[in-house]
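With this grant's support, we have settled on a layout for protein records. An illustrative entry appears below exactly as we store it:
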Amino acid sequence: FHKTFDIIRCFNKSLAEYEMEINKISFQRVIIKQMERTNSKKLTSEIFYAALKAVDPYSAVKLYTDKIRSAYQDGSFKRLIVTGFGKAACNMARAMEEGLADLIDAGAVITKYGHSEKQSTEHRAQNTDRAKKIKIFEAGHPVPDENGLRGTEEIIKILKNADKNTIVVCL
């Protein structure tokens, strides 16, 4: 029954559909041949590092700083506030400061102990001459501690000053 069905289905295909299938099969064969010639360890490593780069918090935020700037200017906003939480908050805050330092009025992020120092030395060296506008609070995780409370209080204080002329970016 299945063979008969396949034969009947084949008669209903157009010439273009047959050509597409042949091209698809040819393409798959080329890819397979290329993969056979490729060092699988190297390919695996390239795929892994490409995936890491694709989800890098710094890069992800850096892509949107121009859009945030446009929204700020187009909306006639007067203030930009940055808040954030989590292990990636410092890298995201760094991207905000590098792209929007001239617009940021205040900011605070809370991260796990040891995660504010994970910025590369290259990025730290580039930022030594500029005062940071976003305060970083390292705190306990998963159990909250006093530093987490201080960071939360700072974020609440900053947000209380927000009004209709303020853009708040939460990282």
In short: The radius of gyration is 26 Å.
